[in-house]
Amino acid sequence: MSQAVAAPPSSTPSSAAELEGAVARAREALDQHLREILQWHFSPETGCPFWLDWMERAGWDPRQEVRTYDDIHRFDHFQDEWLRDEPNERFVPKAFEGRPFNVFETGGTTGLPKQRVGWDDYKHDYEQFSASLDDEAFPRGGNWIMVGPTGPRRLRLAIEHLANFRGGSCYFIDLDPRWVKKLITKGHYDQAEAYQRHVIDQAVEIIKHRNISCLFTTPKLLEGLAERISIPSQGIRGVFCGGTSMPPQMVRFLVEEVCENQTRFVPTYGNTLMGLAHSKPVTAEEGYSITYYAPQPRAALRIVNPDNTAETVDYDSYGRVELTTLTREFFMPRFLERDEALRCRPYSVDYAWDGVGNVRPFGVMEKKIVEGVY
Amino acid sequence: MSSVPHIPILRHGREYHSLDVNEVPVIGSDRTAVRVSMANSGLVRRDLLEMRQARNVLRDIPTADLIAMARQAGRHFLEDELEIGGVMQGPDDYVRHLSSTSGLPHTLIRMNMKKLGQLFKDMDQVMGGLTRGLDLSVIDRGYGEQGGVPMSFSAVTDSLGVVLPSNSPAVNALWMPSIIMKVPVVLKPGREEPWTPMRVIQAFLKAGAPAEAFSFYPTSHDGAQGIIRRCGRVMVFGDDRTVGQYATDPRVEVHGTGHTKILFGEDKIDDWQSCLDMLVESVSANSGRSCINTSAILVPRHGAEIARALAERLASMQPRAADDPGANLSGFANPAMADYIDGAIDEGLKTPGAVDHSAVVRAGSPRRVERDNMNYLLPTVVEVNGWDHPLANREFLFPFTSVVEMPQAEMLEQIGYTLVGTAITGDKAWITELLDCPDIERLNVGAWPTNRIDWNQPHEGNLFDFLYKRRAIHVQTAA
After folding, report:
1. Each residue of B171-190: pLDDT tens digit?
2. ipTM score of complex
3. Which pLDDT band, with edges at 50, 70 and 90, does A2 fall under?
4. Residue A287 is nearest to which of B19, B38, B42, comparing CB atoms?
5. What is the mean pLDDT of residues B448-456?
6. C-alpha to C-alpha distance for B65 and B327, rounded to whole angstroms
7. In whole angstroms, what is the distance from residue A274 CA to residue A336 CA?
8. By residue range, what is the domain housing residue A141?
9. B260-445 adopts what CATH topology?
10. Which residues in chain B have their CB less than 8 angstroms from residue A253's CB?
């Protein structure tokens, strides 16, 4: 059973002593990286206008006052509206001036979407992620297909880069999630279903007539594809899947029935603002629950008490997901995601920091949320 | 064997235990009454691709055999211990289980149980009524002859999807004949009421019905949408908004509000007191939860007297212990539902022209009460001054009715959709008009309670017409 699920080769559990040492080293690396990034973004020689102006208004210098990740609370929560309201040029670090940037969008079902500028971060993230993929399931030189939201999303370039980096090419079938959300919000389920069928029709044609061994898609589209074709019988050996939350029962269904216990299933949690988190191996023995680990030190996740976000919740408790992104291209402290999750313990020497488990939309237990639409 | 049942998903009859388990509590306590496996929507959608195989299994069984199985299943349902979620459940256990999660008093559950038992037993008559006396071998063979005329009927779907409510076990009667019609069922139970559909299924299985005919998916809104979108024919239960949502979709039959009414003719109104028992039963039977309960009484005169007399009689309906043999008022498991209804009535009463006679009888004490951690609404009779009043044509899940004065001549123009209409009159001309009135689904002429219906006369849609279509046929016999 568990041969069919995600198992990055280097992510085997570690002994308590090994883990303890790794946790300390990871923490030290995070603190060191944090100091370097703050130095970069808050120095006039390298920083961007947005953060330099912010520092002047705030009246304190993060380079002096934030020395470890524990000090990150000196910052208030990053407001994602800034990514909509501020001109993108204000987020260009001095060191990148004159180099055209990529624009990656998030949200935007109505109004102007939030935008993040970038250059090479997505390549770094996905090259790092590539190392965690098993060559047997995601063969070197194998072609990929991405079925899902492409357009102005970072994911579109990222998946192509991942394919290219591993020696393959990538086909694309687009789905516009903004349109699907509008249809569902208005109760036009028949149109939403027709649109999904249209997307899957195109994907099935490509998969049937081209040599493809790796697939990136969303859980819903994967289910829809498997209603039309047998994923393993079409030669797909690995599925890399993300975009919405995946409760354990859904993961079990995807592994056992959609991937038929043959095609490797690798879930991911990520977005334009973070990059992508890696999943701990998913097994039947652990009830198909998914735990993700941020690509630390380039990004760090914390599970916080929603009523007092300075407080990290206890292990195995639910809280809201808080993201801090720490790259030379983009600094984003303490952004509150629209998700909640369980705080999980460090897992191995490779993932020697807190994980986030059973991710689900924030407040899903209290209110109706349009989620998992594509 | 745990004492808390864990009700599984049935995938074409195969049991499947989900990792997503809903723990339904005993109302008003922290104790778990039942654990229910929840199906993810992808699983539901995937299974529905294979309904043809289930239909093929049912199609090969003669209708007469299926009717015999139903008769036997009725005995199992009423009398036997059946395995429900890993626990043996006798008839008394069923009553206790259902009461513990739904708040229905034992008396009402037993009444509904009896109705379902009768349906099992009378399935041949029900089929006769639904098919208008068709020789059922026509269904077995696909074609035949009746009265010298060639007949052929073909099923228009491989499955009947049913999105069930939590508030009335008797609604399961609506899908049960589908098995005899050889159309497999795909059931989504209400959150607090997995008990009845599962017990009906287990009774059928014990009687020898094929497991493939029964799919049972406790699931989310998304999963329910999968059933509604993918099944060839679907029954859903809901309010007027739900009815409107599927008004143009011939695949979907919505069982919504009934807007059931009693109309007094000019010739009988002065004798209204002799009809009081009938009025009480029509408003309050099954605790007023059915679409066939009266929610409006139209009278040419005596409105205030009728409203007061009815309010006085209904005031005896009070919350009692669930197992009290005299209990006849159902509670609301969800307190928000009781609050919502109570608030809606109070809001309506703010419009001038309404008198809450029940509030007068109660001397102003609250309509919404609690007992044993359960939420109740006391019966309410409101006299309103015209059909335009916001409370004139409202329907709620408890004993509630309006009483409206209106000339007989205006009634049929005003009433609108009426699932059951009882007209108390001997006026032949008006009876002719009533028979012609397209707004009334089931018509009772005379003082017949609206809640009394016949299974062999469908009052709301005809399942056979819904699942089958007649086709012209010519079969050339071999020389």
Report:
1. 999 999 999 999 999 999 99
2. 0.87
3. very low
4. B19
5. 85
6. 39
7. 12
8. 2-361
9. Aldehyde Dehydrogenase; Chain A, domain 2 (3.40.309)
10. 40, 42-43
